[in-house]
Amino acid sequence: MHMSLIDKLVHLLIPRESNNHKAKILHPSGLFALALFLIIFQGVLGFAEKKAPSVLGFAAQISIDEVVALTNSKRAEKGLPPLTLNQTLSSAAFTKGRDMIDRDYWAHTAPDGTTPWSFFNRFGYKYRYAGENLARDFNSASAAVEAWMNSPTHRDNILNPKYKEIGIGITEGDLAGSDTTIIVQFFGATSGTQVRVAEAASTTQTPVLARQVSPRPTVVPTQTLEIVAAKPVASAAPVLITNLPLEQEDQKVLISPFNTTKTLSFGVAVLLLVVFLADAYLVSKRRITRIAGRSFAHFIFLLMLLSIVIIIRSGQIL
Length: 318
Hints:
Blueprint lengths: L1 H12 L14 H24 L12 H14 L6 E2 L1 H17 L12 H7 L4 E10 L4 H9 L2 H7 L6 E11 L2 E13 L5 E4 L11 E2 L12 E2 L30 H30 L8 H18 L3 E2 L1
Helix pairs in contact: 2-8, 3-6, 4-5, 8-9
């Protein structure tokens, strides 16, 4: 029985006579079966998550303290003073994250025109300078902060010497049909009548120079805005604020579909790469001639599909 299992694995992974001198997993039928398995596996995870939310769910291990420490570390590298964690800003940031989850949008400005700065105002934070960075689908605080630092506009927020305080909101839930963890990073400095607000542009777009606008502007995510003597902005759809936690929500789950999908996809890609290299080496060493060997084309095709899955599920910043 044990030898039979080994024999099946060799047939699946190593070229020999039983598989026409090409690893069975690299045959069109093998690749099709593998792709079908990945699709079914993802479907089962999604179904199980809805049926057993206490067992499966999003469980990113990201803490507010770590995000703040990493942010201040980046500032220290440039000789800037550390930002102080402000509980009011953290509550406002958490509310912004929940607003995106509850109303199903991923943007600095809500579909109804609600700006990030309205959340500052709702919590009574009288800002002179204010900024916002957003991140989603990162497995660690360090990955999120590094992504922000690799974006010029997000990095400008982190390294802005005018900011004195920081608030972090971490929340999890379903966004556009996918398990998501959102990190909202609010920056602020209080007092004064001159009010300047800035939000980071998407990394896929070129930053736009600041321009002056009227006291009640429509904030565009791809611009850096300067507001003089701004008035509080009322939201068309107020967010219910009740006992907001300052730490991330407690998700007592055993399995994270998000991490499981990424790990499985990466594992399959590595397996196929190893099998393909072993197959090519053994065929060359044994001088086996193939009349219609398309293993390379099939491998590249499946690898592209796996890469798309990984990219779609990777972290994003805004």
